[in-house]
TrEMBL record:
Pfam families: SMC_N. InterPro entries: DNA_recomb/repair_RecN, P-loop_NTPase, RecF/RecN/SMC_N. Keywords: ATP-binding, DNA damage, DNA repair, Nucleotide-binding. GO terms for cellular component: bacterial nucleoid. This is DNA repair protein RecN. One of its GO terms (biological process) is DNA recombination. Belongs to the RecN family. GO terms for molecular function: ATP binding. Residues 110-188 form the RecF/RecN/SMC N-terminal domain. May be involved in recombinational repair of damaged DNA.
């Protein structure tokens, strides 16, 4: 406390309030503002370049995720108001189909589309990311068939960089997992318990067949399930 008082007293006694001192302070302020503006302009240029590259790469990913006509737009607008994080206002917008006006993600995308956009962004940014785990809850909502397979492939690609946990009801997605966990519920008249069990080998093929057709003992479904497992090994 005494040190703080002594230091404050020293600083007060040494404040230069002469005309020359004030001119020096004003000059320092002008120089600092000029440097800050220059750095902010450099940051804006870098952001604009990065926004274009990110939007292009994410749009390409979206075309394989049942959003063939969609495009992502990242805009960087110079507000002229310099703050802690620069002078830009950044927005991410989605054009859902060719000719559609871009709209903010919160207004122009459904829940399933938002999940796939997030997946596309994470796939693009995966290199250099340090996030240890990504969790996707029904990122495949609203898709099926070939599009679902593409979702599975992209999740598998992301898992090469980091751990990925996916909640899915689609066999086309689950087939690409390194570890397949089945969530089961058991209940009686008074109690419900939830358990998680790993499925492997033929049991996994049967589970994928059940997810495909609802019938684990369907020969056609089992054949399709086995094909999905083999396809996943080609990545």
């Amino acid at each position: 406390m005494f040190d703080l008082e002594r230091r404050a007293k020293f600083e007060l006694e040494n404040i230069d309030i002469s005309d020359e001192g004030l001119r020096n302070l004003e000059a320092n302020v002008v120089a600092a503002r000029t440097e800050a503006a220059s750095l902010a302009n450099q940051l804006s240029a870098i952001r604009s370049e990065g926004a274009t590259a990110l939007a292009s790469a994410v749009t390409e990913e979206l075309h394989g995720l049942a959003m063939a006509g969609a495009s992502l737009l990242v805009t960087v607008v110079n507000t002229g108001d310099l703050g802690l994080h620069g002078q830009d206002e950044i927005s991410i917008n989605l054009s859902a189909y060719p000719g559609a006006a871009p709209r903010p993600l919160g207004k122009g995308a459904s829940g399933g589309e938002l999940s796939r956009i997030m997946l596309a962004i994470e796939v693009v940014l995966a290199k250099g990311k340090t996030t240890p785990t990504f969790v996707f809850d029904e990122v495949d909502a609203g898709v099926g068939g070939a599009a679902a397979i593409e979702v599975g492939k992209r999740l598998a690609r992301l898992s090469k960089q980091t751990q990925v946990i996916v909640v899915t009801h689609l066999a086309q997605v689950a087939a690409f997992a390194d570890n397949h966990l089945r969530v089961e519920k058991a209940s009686d008249s008074t109690f419900t318990a939830t358990s998680v069990r790993r499925v492997e080998g033929e049991e996994r093929v049967a589970e994928l067949a059940r997810m495909l057709s609802g019938l684990g003992d369907s020969e056609n479904a089992r054949t399709h399930a086995a094909e999905l497992v083999e396809l996943s090994k080609t990545l």
